[in-house]
Write a structure and sequence with these properties.
By secondary structure, the chain is α/β, with parallel strands linked by helices. The chain is 41% helix and 18% strand. The longest helix is centred in the middle third of the chain and has 22 residues.
Amino acid sequence: MRKLWVFGDSFMAWNKNWVGWLAKKYGCRVHMHAVAGSSIDFTYLELLRWEHKIDSRDYVLIGITSEHRHYFSGIHFVPNYLVLDGDGKKEVRVPHYPRKNEPLYNQVKTDAYVSYVKELYNIEHREKLVRATIYYITNVISKRLLTDNVLIIPTVGRQMNIKSFWQFNEEFLIKKNLIRPELDLEKAIELMDTPNHWLGDIHEDYEKEWHQFYDPIIDKYFTSTTERTKPTLI
């Protein structure tokens, strides 16, 4: 049976709603390698790990997340907040995955990461490295896959010339007057706390709008062509 290989972050990391719909539409069994809170680095490493298993009849879905996430020692760090406090010092609040219940684990790992962000992290340098990684995923890894059915799509951030899943959800919530236009981040995160951040189970018009926007994009890249062409970054 054909496989649908899924790489990326929490927008991709559940094989129900839209991912399940894709698997059913194209007659695939889902091979899930997306992880909530993961970074572009992790997606890159997972692609390197599994690319030799991908067959010519398979489908590959790659989500590109925010450039400011990290993957250290098997832990996914998501710096949602990086601001200056009243003394001009960096204040960092960061969740990490997988979540551990042991207080000592949380304290030691989080403290180490916060120290890294405060003392060593260079945003401009990180963005340049991430652009290089995205380029390699798009122009090297995706082109050497045996399958032509490759879709690379942004989940968080604005690194590509198409609306990301986060941006789509954000605009939908603003239209519903559930968050403010200037980005009420904490409220947005709370409202999107669903599998794949799918809002269709709460708002009946969400699914229709989602499919109207993304179906033409998906159908453009997920085809049944028999000739090898070059996968394209959207």
